[in-house]
Design a protein that fits this description.
This protein is mostly helical. The chain has a domain of 55 residues. The chain has 3 helices and no strands. The longest helix is centred in the C-terminal third of the chain and has 22 residues. The radius of gyration is 17 Å and the shape is flat. The termini are far apart.
Length: 79
């Protein structure tokens, strides 16, 4: 593989956008803003809270968009 081809494919990979990842991080940042959490300085408890509500919200959204049963989504803070 030539150096130019290699660099082009790396650039394409870096610039490619995954719609699901974009949706997940949109939900994540919305919750950080809503609850006034700065991730870099958040406590362990704040991080766990944001991670969990983001996970549940994203999974429920994904299930709804794909016609999957919401009963399959693990509830908040369930082990």
């Amino acid at each position: 593989m030539s150096e130019i081809t290699k660099n082009t494919s790396e650039a394409e990979w870096y610039c490619r956008k995954d719609p699901e990842e974009e949706r997940f991080y949109s939900i994540f940042f919305n919750f950080c803003n809503k609850y006034h959490v700065r991730w870099a300085s958040a406590t362990e408890k704040e991080r766990a809270f944001i991670e969990e509500i983001t996970r549940v919200t994203y999974e429920r959204d994904y299930a709804t968009r794909n016609g999957l049963p919401l009963s399959e989504v693990r509830t908040s803070f369930a082990s």
